[in-house]
Amino acid sequence: MNAYESLKRDARWKWWEPAILLVLIGVPLAMGKYSLVNEIVITALFAVSLDLILGYAGIVSLGHAAFFGLGAYASALFAKHVHPDPLIGLAVGTACATVLGAVASATIIRGSDLTRLMVTIGVGLLMLELANKLDWLTGGADGLQGVVMGPLLGQFEFDLYGKTAAWYSLCALVVCLVLARRLVHSPFGATLKAIRDNRLRATAIGIPVTSRLAVIYTISAGVAGVAGGLLAQTTGFASLDVFEFHRSADLVLMLVIGGTGWLYGGIIGAVVFKVLQEQLSAFTPQYWMFWIGLLLVILVLVGRERINPRYWMKKKEGSA
Fold it and tell me: Which residues contact 48 (CB under 8 A, 6 or more apart)?
């Protein structure tokens, strides 16, 4: 089997992928907690954005909240001062985050993983401090308040129950997921995996490593901007919390739970993390992080791949 046939086979939709998408669409109908569904979906999209660079390109980042936060503030400011249309505002927030990603990509194309960690954290802290100092624009520590969104597509008002918000975020997640899946199963995605596995070998066979890393980092920033814009639009509020370090760190935990290198890992990790967070914080408000830590220890000891559907599918294919 040549490389083209292998890519074509991997790009085919597996039977369980539409099932996952149908479950995502059916969740709001089965659950009455639309606000929780909306939060989970936005977090899942944010995790997918990090997996694009961590799982497929091997770029370690702990400052991804910079793009998430910029998307949130840009969308909120656009709605407050220019136009309340959600789709236009989301496009503006995505564009701003993408531009920041393109600029910041110059900082991650060289150096070791430790260097990238420090640089990405620095970018996140810079954006946090900038939003704090520009209080005349962002509201500073009080946050950006008074963000009122217009009806979605001119028809669907954002209700107090969060039903419209949940469906809006779900549609955005599905669209981004389909596009990201097409990207990672393309020849471009194959070169990213080659860079991730062995950068020197990838360079030796003629892959433009620098440009590939810059492009995927920029795309990842744009997807994170979509997630941030959705958060600001569906909550009507943007605060300094969107730039906080814990948001980036939580993403890494989600990808540890769900697995890296496949887009559904971020979604599964986000669902497990958020549901556990809500349930455990209600049961033990002060110690819920203890149980999350215990889960991570078990995953490491047991082997996360054993609870990953891909592990059993490959094992079944190998025995066939």
Answer: 173, 176, 177, 180, 223, 263, 266, 267
As a whole number of angstroms, the distance between CA 243 and CA 249 comes to 11
User: Which amino acid type is present at position 218?
Assistant: T
* Residue-level pLDDT at 28: 58
- Please tell me the pTM assigned to this model: 0.85
Rounded Cα gap, residues 261 and 184, in angstroms: 9
Q: Which residues pair with 113 in a beta bridge?
A: none
> What pLDDT is stored for residue 1 in this prediction?
52
**Per residue in 168-182, pLDDT tens?**
888 899 899 889 988
Q: State how far Cα 241 lies from the chain centre.
A: 16
| Four-residue CA torsion sign, 42, 48, 51, 57 | negative
Cα separations in angstroms, 91 against 55, 57, 104, 105, 303: 26, 25, 20, 21, 40
Degrees (nearest 5) of the Cα angle 95, 96, 101?
Answer: 95
- Token readout for 231 is 């958060």
Q: Which helix (H) or strand (E) holds 197?
A: helix 187-197
Backbone angles phi, psi at 17, to 5 degrees: -70, -50
Model confidence band, residue 295 (pLDDT cutoffs 50, 70, 90)? confident
* pLDDT attached to residue 308: 54
> What CATH class has 3-267?
mainly alpha
Q: What is the pLDDT of residue 314?
A: 52
